[in-house]
Write a structure and sequence with these properties.
Strand order of the largest sheet: 1-4
Number of domains: 1
Number of helices: 6
Number of strands: 4
Shape: elongated
Strand content: 5-15%
Distance between the termini: 68 Å
Radius of gyration: 26 Å
Order of helices and strands: EEEEHHHHHH
Length: about 180
Amino acid sequence: MLELIIPENELYDEVKEEFINTKRRVLRLEHSLISLSKWESKWKKSFLDSGNKTVAETIDYIKCMTITQNVDDVIYKAITDDLIAKVNDYIDDDMTATTFVKSNSKKGRETVTAELIYYWMIALNVPFECQKWHLNKLLTLINVCNIKNQPNKKKMSRREILARNKRLNAQRKKKLGTKG
């Protein structure tokens, strides 16, 4: 969870042509599958695959992340670039000690949306209370479950490799009618 301190501020509402005073407010934020789902429901696009967000999209995601109750919308207008940078650092944090070996394969990636993550949770029997976890921690758990559920590929011993190669060579000699 991230606590974001919005300082007391004076803003100008150009529509109403008046000044608005905001009080200091502490927002508690959680980058979770729940907040991701809320944002994607509104913007109708993948949060994870959509690249750089507009300021409006970013502020709206902060609204979706907010778990503090009864927050007036005017508070979000007082969010500075420094606070947005702090939120982005929190979103990018792995939140785990688990690491993976990066593969160089460039498989066709599917667009990752909240519904796909929920599918992975169901398929891997990940409990739904994990939807409240930091999203990167949840995705790491899903990745670990996926890896651990793959069948073990037992490495062949030197003797097995030599026996397999001898058998394959014999098949090729017979097929091609040669003696070697």
